[in-house]
Specification:
DHFR-like_dom_sf, diaminohydroxyphosphoribosylaminopyrimidine deaminase activity, zinc ion binding, Riboflavin_Biosynth_HTPR, Cytidine Deaminase, domain 2, 5-stranded mixed β-sheet, 9-stranded mixed β-sheet
């Protein structure tokens, strides 16, 4: 069993190499072992490319016959962008398959393991399942609900301020925390802010990593009245990612046309109120195969997202600074709560030091990264 755990950890590490690159697919790693020797390794690099099992089997060649395959997710048994991995495993003549978790995709959901068992392959599932679940928390939420996994990122002073009373916010956190923020942008499919952030700061909303290989997220601007300037950086900069303006029917038609002419995708979100309905917006983004959203909004957007119940995870940076002032803005606006028992609690909380700052991470559900798996 210790050896099994060793090889599964190796498979999990391989899977994580593709973090942020496989959407809408999961991250998957595979290791082929024969007579105590690793003879093949592989991971799913991006959507449409060969699956981890196929890559690992090709790496192993004839040595795969009679071997054990450790894979972080149940092998698929259906035709998608690629062929079934169960067929590849059976054709290679493997003796045993150890999976960290079953696939929550309704097209698989245990069927892949059943196919292998029926063909005489020894099958084991559940080894290091917690690690595998957390690795693919985005995929689990998306494949079971067709809505994106949502992370709310905030950075505040110790007294809960996101800017001074004069509006100065650069920079509350230090270099290490800001770099981590850009790594989050590199991981998730999209970044969401409100139009007030665009009007106040004209941000780029791109992933700028020290090594220069960040993947820009799709930019989503919540803009009920289509006030985003056509000269804003989110519309004029060079970027492989596009910009979506999420607006409402009350936005002037000519403004919508101007934004589309400037290169934006304008998404009119249905709803009865004057503001963008966040629940419907997430449904529409899911239809576009956007599997994850990083919210980097101000207090109004953060408050609306939390009130709508769309936030799955929180990444909160605390800087060892005290700003003070009644007029200095906080990170969550709106009506708030009347009773402490109604406060949004975080679960599976972790705390880490990033340079001079502290990062608190947690989930809004007791089930954490598994929030969308069946009970």
């Amino acid at each position: 069993m210790n050896q099994d755990r060793h090889y599964m950890r190796m498979a999990l590490e391989l899977a994580a190499k593709a973090r942020g690159r496989t959407s809408p697919n999961p991250m998957v790693g595979a290791v082929v072992v024969k007579d105590g020797e690793v003879v093949g390794k592989g991971f799913h690099a991006r959507a449409g490319s060969a699956h981890a099992e196929v890559v690992a089997l090709a790496d192993a060649g004839e040595k795969a016959r009679g071997a054990t395959v450790y894979v972080t997710l149940e092998p698929c048994c259906h035709h998608g962008r690629t062929g079934p991995c169960t067929e590849a495993l059976l054709k290679a003549g493997v003796k045993r398959v150890v999976a960290a978790m079953t696939d929550p995709n309704p097209l698989v959901a245990g069927k892949g393991l059943a196919v292998l068992r029926e063909a005489g392959v020894e099958v084991q599932s559940g080894l290091l399942q917690e690690e595998a679940l957390r690795l693919n928390e985005v995929f689990i939420k998306y494949i079971t609900t067709k809505r994106p996994f949502v992370v709310l990122k905030a950075a505040t002073s110790l007294d809960g301020k996101i800017a001074t009373a004069a509006g100065e916010s650069k920079w509350i956190t230090g270099h290490a925390a800001r770099e981590y923020g850009h790594r989050l942008r590199d991981i998730y499919d999209a970044i969401l802010v409100g139009v007030n952030t665009i009007l106040a700061d004209d941000p780029s909303l791109t992933a700028r990593l020290p090594e220069g290989r960040g993947k820009d997220p799709v930019r989503i601007i919540v803009d009920s009245a289509a006030r985003t300037p056509t000269a804003a950086k989110v519309l004029t900069q060079l970027s492989a990612a596009h910009t979506i303006i999420a607006t409402t029917e009350r936005a002037p038609v000519e403004r919508r046309a101007s934004l589309m002419a400037a290169g934006a995708e304008v998404m009119v979100v249905p709803g009865e109120g004057s503001r963008v309905d966040f629940v419907k917006l997430m449904e529409m983004l899911g239809e576009k195969e956007i599997t994850s959203v990083l919210i980097e909004g101000g207090g109004q957007v953060n408050g609306a997202a939390l009130a709508a119940g769309i936030v799955d995870k929180v990444a909160w940076f605390l800087a060892p600074k005290i700003i003070g002032g009644d007029a200095a803005p906080g990170p969550v606006r709106g009506e708030g709560i009347a009773s402490l028992q109604d406060a949004i609690k975080l679960y599976d909380v972790s705390v880490e030091r990033l340079g001079e700052d502290i990062l608190v991470t947690g989930y809004t559900s007791e089930r954490g990264g598994r929030l969308s798996l069946p009970e």
